[in-house]
Write a structure and sequence with these properties.
Elements lengths: L1 H51 L15 H13 L9 H4 L1 H10 L3 E5 L2 E6 L2 H8 L6 E2 L5 H8 L5 H19 L6 E3 H18 L3 H20 L9 H4 L3 H29 L10 H9 L10 H32 L1 H15 L13 H13 L5 E6 L3 E3 L2 E3 L3 E6 H5 L2 H4 L15 H4 L20 H18 E5 L7 E4 L1 E4 L4 E6 L5
Helix pairs in contact: 7-8, 7-19, 8-9, 8-13, 9-11, 11-13, 12-13, 13-14, 13-15, 13-19, 14-15
Bound molecules: protoporphyrin IX containing FE.
């Protein structure tokens, strides 16, 4: 009998627990749903209403996805259409921006998932956002190490000679066996720029650095193809796609490789082989990792992240610039001849040197015109930190400002009807004259306090590489090349870039 009462009590307690559990679960689900509703419906609707009431239109917000599905579709269509060998690349590279500017005007609101994006193309407003000193428009935190590294003279003569000239020589040595044959330059420049950035970042350990950069390239490919995929709320916490699993695996490998290089540096100091961690990028990072003051100490994750940013910022961009500049020289052979004559006049058959760089006027014009027509980075974004006035508009929090460099560079109102023609002579009297003193009309490196810190390094690297190629070769477009610029984080040729190089038999 007592046993039965005991059983009843147990059952009752279990029943109560079950009710409590079910009630908590329902409450949890209700709160989670409310949260989803607030984030994914209420805020976007509110932001859309605020912007619409100020006369700003745009494609309507779609639950969870924003406009991502439509954008992905437009990209797919644009990338499968054949294209003539022209420089009118804006509609192909960012088809959604091109189409929405035509439909809604030069300032419109679109949706990257649940993020509201206000596109602005008025150079005055662009300047206002990028030069804003009150931190109303935020960018992700600045890298202390880049500033320090570049500040400490990344583009100084010593680094320059060892990193750039040596790497270009290695590349050109390989080309000797390909005389008169087709060369896929995008891959060649990928190896070159990886080596340059690897030598600069990792000094003597650059070969190990390159392995890490290889893995980062794989990671960037995965990131690129997932850019417009929205995460399904709640479910995405429990379910991972194959790409997510793969990127976690690569991230772990990168982490382990960075750790192994760091440990090697540490060992050299412990065994007395070296008396410090070195003054290259990795050396600076390892020093910060050993910082005595805990507050300023760099975590291993931060260290890995710094390496990633350095690689993407410094390698992919220059890779893109070099490829498009070489293609433009191959198409516009009159400019190629002028550029070569200048290089021979300045350097003769000698390797380029730091002092001669400033004398390369024609090459500078060509690089600027390449960066205008084929900007490696198609746009910059700033987050609206708090409600703020921009021109006549009031922008709510939870929004972003999207400044499309490529839209500004291809705007006939700013550049004239010949906007899509390759005319380096625009820059004959400098950038200010070319843009009619309108700074935001040409901003391949961004603008204002958070613009690119590697600009001079990038330009020097490009001038050196182009000079060394021109000293040895004439270049033409291969009949197998298919013109299809594609945005993959940076601007890349969709079907590689095949060019033909003919030796000048000039003993450089
Ligand atoms: C043609 C080559 C390059 C182009 C077109 C380019 C372009 C840009 C642009 C548009 C930005 C964003 C600016 C903004 O948000 O306002 C940027 C940022 C940056 N760039 Fe470059 N860049 C190039 C080469 C380099 C190189 C060679 C390095 C370093 C070695 C570098 C380091 C950086 C860094 C550290 C940032 C800031 C990253 C951050 O804090 O988020 N860039 N670059």
């Amino acid at each position: 009998m007592q046993n039965l009462i005991g059983e009843d009590k147990k059952m009752e307690t279990m029943g109560n627990l079950l009710i409590l559990f079910t009630a908590s679960l329902c409450l949890y689900l209700f709160v989670a749903l409310l949260n989803v509703f607030y984030k994914y419906w209420w805020i976007p609707q509110r932001v859309q209403f605020i912007m619409n009431s100020q006369g700003i239109r745009g494609p309507p917000y779609e639950f969870i996805h924003g406009n991502n599905k439509e954008i992905a579709q437009m990209f797919m269509e644009a990338s499968t259409k054949p294209m003539a060998l022209t420089h009118d690349i804006f509609p192909r590279v960012v088809p959604h921006v091109y189409s929405w500017i035509n439909k809604y005007g030069k300032t419109y609101l679109s949706w990257n998932g649940i993020r509201a994006r206000l596109l602005i193309t008025d150079p005055e407003l662009v300047k206002e956002v990028l030069k804003n000193s009150e931190k109303a428009f935020r960018k992700t935190k600045a890298s202390y190490f880049f500033d320090k590294l570049i500040g400490d003279g990344l583009a100084s003569t010593e680094q320059y000679d060892s990193a750039v000239v040596a790497s270009v020589e290695t590349m050109l040595e390989k080309w000797k066996s390909k005389e008169g044959k087709e060369i896929e330059v995008f891959q060649e420049f990928r190896l070159l720029t990886s080596e340059v950035i690897s030598r600069t970042a990792f000094g003597s350990s650059y070969l190990e650095g390159e392995k890490i950069f290889d893995m980062l390239t794989k990671l960037s490919v995965i990131t690129g193809r997932n850019i417009f995929k929205a995460k399904i709320p709640i479910i995405s916490k429990f379910w991972k796609s194959a790409d997510e699993i793969e990127s976690e695996r690569i991230a772990k490998m990168i982490h382990d490789s960075v750790m192994s290089i760091v440990e090697k540096r540490e060992k050299r100091v412990v065994t007395g082989e070296a008396d410090n961690f070195g003054c290259d990028f990795l050396g600076l990072l390892v020093n910060a990792y050993h910082e005595v003051d805990e507050k300023n100490r760099l975590s291993i994750q931060d260290l890995v992240d710094e390496c990633k940013t350095f690689y993407f910022a410094g390698q992919e961009t220059v890779n893109s610039l070099l490829a498009w500049a070489t293609l433009l020289l191959a198409i516009h052979t009159n400019w190629q001849d002028r550029a070569r004559a200048e290089v021979i006049e300045v350097f003769g058959s000698q390797n380029p040197n730091f002092e001669g760089m400033a004398k390369l006027k024609t090459i500078t014009m060509i690089i600027n015109e390449t960066l205008r027509l084929y900007p490696p980075i198609s746009g910059v974004i700033r987050e609206v930190g708090r409600e703020v006035q921009l021109g006549k508009l009031v922008l709510p929090t939870h929004s972003e400002v999207d400044m499309r460099i490529i839209a500004l560079h291809h705007d006939p109102d700013l550049w004239g009807d010949d906007v899509n023609l390759f005319k380096p002579e625009r820059f004959a009297e400098g950038i200010a004259k070319a843009t009619k003193y309108n700074a935001a009309a040409f901003m391949p490196f961004g603008l204002g306090p958070r613009s690119c810190v590697g600009m001079s390094f990038a330009i020097t690297e490009a001038k050196t590489t182009l000079s060394m190629i021109l000293q040895r070769y004439t270049v033409t477009v291969s009949p197998t090349y298919v013109h299809a610029p594609a945005p993959r984080l940076t601007l890349k040729p969709q079907h590689e870039m095949q060019l033909l190089f003919h030796s000048l038999h000039y003993d450089a």
